[in-house]
């Protein structure tokens, strides 16, 4: 079965991370929305990568 891609189309990083907390022990594919990336920057991508490695 193919995993869905979850779009992180949130206005800020705290909203996105709060949403992602529902999926703590699951492996996900995510797409960071343009508004979120412009607001949070590369630090959000680093955080998401860190969460997958821990």
TrEMBL record:
What transmembrane ranges does the database entry give? Answer: none
Q: Which UniProt keywords apply?
A: Lyase
InterPro entries hit by this protein: Aldolase_TIM, OMPdeCOase_dom, RibuloseP-bd_barrel
Q: Name one GO biological process term.
A: 'de novo' pyrimidine nucleobase biosynthetic process
- Where is the Orotidine 5'-phosphate decarboxylase domain positioned along the sequence? 3-48
Question: What is one Pfam family matched by this protein?
Answer: OMPdecase
Keyword set includes Nucleotide-binding = no
Under Gene Ontology molecular function, one entry of this record is: orotidine-5'-phosphate decarboxylase activity
SUPFAM superfamilies per record: Ribulose-phoshate binding barrel (SSF51366)
Query: What's the protein name?
Result: Orotidine 5'-phosphate decarboxylase domain-containing protein
